[in-house]
């Protein structure tokens, strides 16, 4: 018997006790309280992929223009740590996950909606429920609010169509989309073009996101450990181009479809795929199926990063790229994407010096 329950984002929403508490209106969250009580302006950013980079870039542009701005939410400090000292002159750039957006009844004044792809289907009943959680970024906006949205993503486009906010459509892929979103957000705050462009030019990719580890024994290694869905890995392959010769794939099973990724790999110049459990076998099956009897890359199954990196050094040519971009979550053989990425960097540097 509780008057109010603070639910952290990671607690499943479909536990019987949680579902019952939602029905009784007894559940709240830090995000809900912050959005409903913050006197400053909130820029909320969501999307299956790209929200951390976009949030960081918007924050940096506004900061470079002298705005009193704070980076909060899913990427930085908890939102309530700022609420009591927030003023109407403050701007809060807030990365919002689907878990944080679920059950909200207020949207930020400026919303950035990047994309929706199948993800967290072990948490939500289906893609529709996941999309509905994401939709709260704009569901409660009014005519004086702004929605910057990716018109190239079908689900986002449909959600935006119902929004009452002033709409700013953008299109792009991967980091190009993130930059376009940040530019449009900066324009709302009337940031001069020279500051926007200078900030973008100097901005470095966040760790675990297309992070260049360096060149070792003539091989370029990239750490894209946060690519936990096929679409992100496809984007990484497209971004790095034909020099990608070895790729590391596979991880925790979340009932995701890998057929488009399989086709992308076959169309690329990737010669080696290193596959982790559990989805590694599923990805390889899709690659073989998509090949329809034609040529396929060399494939290697392993259950640890040490051997994976050894295989990469043995099979990747000089001047080529080895890409860690698993298209799967990490919660089986790795603690999380950080551990996966850190182990990748550790062994690359260790064997690269021998």
Topology of this structure?
Blueprint: E1 5-6, H1 16-23, E2 27-28, H2 30-37, E3 41-46, H3 51-64, E4 69-73, H4 80-83, E5 91-95, H5 98-101, E6 110-113, H6 127-139, E7 146-150, H7 154-161, E8 166-170, H8 174-188, H9 193-202, E9 211-216, E10 219-223, H10 230-240, E11 244-249, H11 259-267, E12 272-275, H12 279-291, E13 298-301, H13 305-315, E14 321-324, H14 337-352
Parallel strand pairs: 1-2, 3-5, 3-6, 4-5, 6-7, 7-8, 10-14, 11-12, 11-14, 12-13
Antiparallel strand pairs: 9-10
Helix pairs in contact: 3-8, 3-9, 6-7, 10-11, 11-12, 13-14
Description:
This protein is globular. With 354 residues, it is of the alpha/beta class. α3 crosses α9. It has a six-stranded parallel sheet with strand order 4-5-3-6-7-8, with helices on both faces. It has a six-stranded mixed sheet with strand order 9-10-14-11-12-13, sandwiched between helices. The chain has a two-stranded parallel ribbon with strand order 1-2. Helix content is 41%, strand content 18%.
Key descriptive features of the protein:
Protein-Tyrosine Phosphatase, Chain A, UDP-N-acetylmuramoyl-L-alanine:D-glutamate ligase, six-stranded mixed sheet, alpha/beta, 14 strands, six-stranded parallel sheet, 14 helices
């Amino acid at each position: 018997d509780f008057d109010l329950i603070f639910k952290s984002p990671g607690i499943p929403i479909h536990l019987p006790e949680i579902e019952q508490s939602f029905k009784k209106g007894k559940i709240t969250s830090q995000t809900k309280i912050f959005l409903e009580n913050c006197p400053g302006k909130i820029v909320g950013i969501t999307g299956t992929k790209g929200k951390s980079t976009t949030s960081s870039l918007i924050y940096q542009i506004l900061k470079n223009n002298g705005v009193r701005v704070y980076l909060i939410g899913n990427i930085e400090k908890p939102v309530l740590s700022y609420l009591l000292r927030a003023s109407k002159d403050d701007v809060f750039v807030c990365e919002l996950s689907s878990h944080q957006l679920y059950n909200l009844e207020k949207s930020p004044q400026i919303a950035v909606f990047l994309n929706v792809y199948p993800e967290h289907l072990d948490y939500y009943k289906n893609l529709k429920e996941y999309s509905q959680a994401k939709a709260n970024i704009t569901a409660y906006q009014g005519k004086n609010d702004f929605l910057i949205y990716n018109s190239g993503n079908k689900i986002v486009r449909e959600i935006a169509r119902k929004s009452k906010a002033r709409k700013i459509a953008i299109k792009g892929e991967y980091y190009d989309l993130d930059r376009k979103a940040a530019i449009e957000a900066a324009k709302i705050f009337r940031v001069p073009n020279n500051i926007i462009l200078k900030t973008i030019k100097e901005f470095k990719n966040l760790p675990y996101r297309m992070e260049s580890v360096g060149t070792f024994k003539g091989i370029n290694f990239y750490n894209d450990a946060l690519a936990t869905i096929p679409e992100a890995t496809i984007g990484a392959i497209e971004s790095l181009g034909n020099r990608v010769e070895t790729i590391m794939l596979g991880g925790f099973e979340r009932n995701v479809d890998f057929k488009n990724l399989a086709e992308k790999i076959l169309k690329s110049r990737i010669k080696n795929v290193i596959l982790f459990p559990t989805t590694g076998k599923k990805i390889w099956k899709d690659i073989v199926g998509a090949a329809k009897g034609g040529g396929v890359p060399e494939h290697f199954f392993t259950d640890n990063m040490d051997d994976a990196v050894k295989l990469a050094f043995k099979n990747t040519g000089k001047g080529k790229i080895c890409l860690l971009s698993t298209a799967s979550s990490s919660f089986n053989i790795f603690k999380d994407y950080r551990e996966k990425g850190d182990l990748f960097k550790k062994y690359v540097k260790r064997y690269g010096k021998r």
